[in-house]
Every structure is written in structure tokens, then in C-alpha cells.
Amino acid sequence: MAARRATRQISVGGVKIGGRNNPVVVQSMTKSDTRDVARTVAEIKGAEAEGCEIIRSAVPDMAAADALVEIKRQISIPLIADIHFHHELALASIKNGVDGLRLNPGNIRDADKVREVVRAAQRARISIRIGVNFGSLPPVGKIGASGGRRVVDGVNELPTIAEAMLSGRPDAYTVVDHMVATALWEISILEALDFDDIKISLKAFDVPTTVESYRRLATLVPYPFHLGITESGTVRTGSIRSAVGLGVLLYEGIGDTIRVSLAGDCREEVKTGFEILKSLNLRNKGTTLVACPSCGRADIDVLRLTAKVDELLKGRATPIKVAVMGCEVNGPGEAKDADVGIAGGNGRAVIFRKGAKARVVPEAEMLEALMSEVEKAEEALKARA
Asked: What is the pLDDT at residue 294?
């Protein structure tokens, strides 16, 4: 895996993002009507219980901006205001105590209005995310200019990099070029005001477009990146698409904070985010379950056992690895590699602790014996902490 890209470090409500040694931060966005304070706060606290470190809420009007005061008072994690179209909403959100802003350079294209927001953010000492999305890019040739509708002004006609190469136009202006140029336009405004508490995102539904946009901009600016695949889909399909896109970038050392955008509960976004980071050994939060997929060699009901173990491990914060394996091919090796592992066969199972055989139990006692060893492993880890 590539070394982590070194960036400027910024802070969002005390959460450090970027730099060299800070962990990749997991965040989410509320799905509720921000004006409904009770529901929004409940949603945020649910996400926080799953480990969410930063939360973002939509601010579509002044009533939503005003609600931020009470929302902020009732939560513990940093709150970011998601702003589109109207810079006045950003100014009100700053006044109402948010920890950061997300501005969209595709629909706030008046440089003077952006400057007004930046000056207010400077006074409040909060960060700004420049959030470029394929779905709301400015018209081609009109970055930073008011007017024009995206669909009829050329964005949908821009080729991808692959299409440009296949058509024999390697120097063509592509979707990636337009996304990067849009980000650079707003970055230049902030830099001209000596504002560098910046993070940047360049999101699309298309994974190759997203990956190449981040890769391109990574060579041009020193700021931390917020990664995401926008409108990625349902909990199932969106998790897969996000894992592929974010996984590629994170493996290349690109990315400082992530949001998995799912058409589902924001708690699922947080859980999926941590699983993506755990798969690359970038975060070690909670239990990691290694599970045999089962096949015709399995002598025990691995799928049933795994489902029960998975349910019992939910909500545990201790970072241990548990392996549930079903036959002699990979079972003993994977089970020995885990903090706690079980390898079953012929009506019995061997339970391992840190590579050493702990005990052999009959199939009927496997679940109880395994969870007993998990609890011992958790106690031992806590004692060393």
C-alpha cells in the first residue's frame, strides 16, 4: 500500500483531518429534515453510537439554519452545514455555531459571495470543504459565472477519459478536467484571502471518474481530501460501489476523511466506512469477523454459526479479530491468525487464541465456547490498555 499523502492539517470542531499521522476520519450526513430538531438530534446520536466522528446536515432555508443552534447544543460531535445555491445560508450557519461548511462551487458561482463567506469563516475560525459533485457542475466554459443550465450547457456531453482515448482525442477536455478546474477556481479564491483551512471533495457516481479526479488534484494542491462516491445506491449496492472507489484511493494513500453515501440509515454509512478502513488496516475499530463462505467440504453448519457470531459481536468496541472457519483447507491457518478463532469439522471444533490451541469442543458447544474465549480476549486487551 502506498504511503499516505502528506497534506496540510485542518481541524473540524477539534477533530484533526489530514497531516501525516492523523487517522482517516469517518463521517456521515443526516437524512432527516434539519428543521425537525428532535429527529435530527436522535439521528446524529445514533450515528455517533456507531462511531461517527463528524456529521453534516442540509441547510435548505433559514429555518434549517436557525435549527442548527439547538442541534449543536444537544450533540457531541462536530456539525457541518451543507450549503447550496444561497450564500446567506452559509453566513447564518456560521453565526449559529457550526464547526464547518460545505460549499458547492457548481451552484454558488459568484466570487464576491464566496469571499463574503470565507471572511466570515476566517473570523469564526472554521474550515470550508469545497465540495465538487458531478451532478451539480457549472456549465462548460462558465466556471465561476452565473447563469446557464447544466444539462444544456455541455457538462453531460463531456467525454470521460476512457471515451476520449478510445475516440482518438487524448487531449480532449473531459469530465475529470472540468471537475478539477471547478475545484481549482474556488481554491484560488480562498487562497487569495490567505484562507487555507480547506478540504476538498470531487465526487461522482462513476467510480473511474471519481478516482481519476482525486488522483489529478492530489498532484496540484496540499489540502486534505474528503472521499466519497456520490449517490452510490442502496445499502447493498452502494456499499460495494463505495468500497471499490474509496478502496482504490485509500490504497494509493489518497484520502483523509470519508463519507459512504447510501440510500439508507446513516448508521449504515458509518459502519460501512469503518469496514472499508478496517479492510486496509487504516482503522481498527470494533471486532473484525473473518468468516468461511462454506462449501461442500464443510462438516458443520458454518453459515448458521457465523450469523450467530456476527449478531453477538455487534456493538463491541474492542478491536479484536475473530475467525469462524469450517474445514481443514484454510480453517486452521485463518483461525490461528486471529485473536480468537474456531475451525470446525467432524462434529467438533478447535478453538484458538493468538495462534495457540485453547481447547477442543463438541459441535453443540461451539458458539458458547467461542464467545467465552472472545470475552477473555477482550478482558486481556482492556487490561493491557
From this structure: 80
pLDDT of residue 64: 98
Phi/psi at 300 (5° precision): -125, 165
> Is the CB of residue 203 less than 8 Å from the CB of residue 236?
no
What residues contact residue 38 under an 8 Å CB cut-off, 6+ apart?
none
Given a contact cutoff of 8 angstroms between Cβ atoms, the answer to whether 141 and 105 are in contact is: no
Other CB atoms within a 10 A radius of the CB of residue 255 amount to 27
Domains of the chain in start order, with CATH, are 10-279 (3.20.20.20), 288-384 (3.30.413.10)
* Residue 105: predicted pLDDT: 96
d(CA 349, CA 366): 7
Largest CA distance in the chain: 74
pLDDT for 148 equals 57
Cα–Cα distance, 11 to 125 (Å, whole number)? 10
As a whole number of angstroms, the distance between CA 13 and CA 54 comes to 9
Which residues of the chain carry a pLDDT beneath 50? 151-152
Residues 122, 132: Cα–Cα separation, whole Å: 21
Instruction: Identify the burial level of 248 via C-beta atoms within 10 angstroms of its C-beta, where 0-12 means exposed, 13-18 middle and 19 or more buried.
Output: middle
For position 147, what pLDDT does the model report? 64
Alpha-carbon distance 92 to 74, whole Å?
19
**What's the N-to-C CA distance of the chain in angstroms?**
28
